Amino acid sequence: MNRLIWTLILSLNISLCFAQQDDTEKLTEEQRTYIGPLRYRTLKETIGETYVVLPLDIDDMKSGYAFLANVTTGEKRAIASTAGKHLKLLSIDDDFKYGNFVDSVGMQYQAKTSLLKLFYQVAPAKDIEDARQLLLNKKLWINFLFLKTGNPYDWRGALIGIENVRFEPVTVINVSPSTTNGAPVLLTLKTDKGIIGYSFVDVSGTNTDHDPVAYFKNNFFTKDPQTIYKYPAAVWKNIKAGKVTLGMTEEQVTLIKGEPERVNVVKTGGKVYRDMIYMEPKYQSYLLLNGKVTLIK
């Protein structure tokens, strides 16, 4: 089955079970570990766990936490200094509209949930700590094109970085909370050339919106891809250069371009083609026959 379709199916199944909250038995172990190295848990399964309040983006510092209220003080928006505070999830209301939390000194907090039944601006502390234990000082291989090097706490920092880094080895030099619960783990990375960059990733799917773009497994290899994919040197030369050529396989195109926006099945002249469609940075189509690229447009 096409990898993109399989990703979307698993993500949809997880999201559906996540929204229902009581259907944990419907999740297979493969679904629970598909997103990243850590195991997925529903919100109900995290009752009793500690959540960490994520740092705010620099533009949100004055307004505070729109989805987190300090019940004890009456603040409808928890102030910026709440960042980093550990809150224990005590309960979730029956309609999954909010969760009740308490800090170490007994102050009460309430977090609103979204339509996807998740808490914004907080993340399970266990996921961040487990990711730190698992990934700190480990070597990974990048599976994206642009390594961000700007300030990770300023959204404009995501516009600064270096291009064409796919398959480059990096070392994880720090693991910390990010500014978004959609990809709550901030990995600080160091390339072999000494360049420091970062990536926001989803390591388990717990309390995230299940965006495949953020999945750890879609962003990193844990082994050198050249030892995983046994291609001739000439093919690897084109892959590293980001050049799709005639005769390449769907797997090779995906390594270069990432997952396509969609794959169309085209039947014409008694033949069945697969058309891999990409929309960014510009429209591109790769038509495959018998598993090989026959036309690029």
UniProtKB/TrEMBL annotation:
Cleaved signal peptide residues: 1-19
Keywords: Signal
Protein name per Swiss-Prot or TrEMBL: DUF5117 domain-containing protein
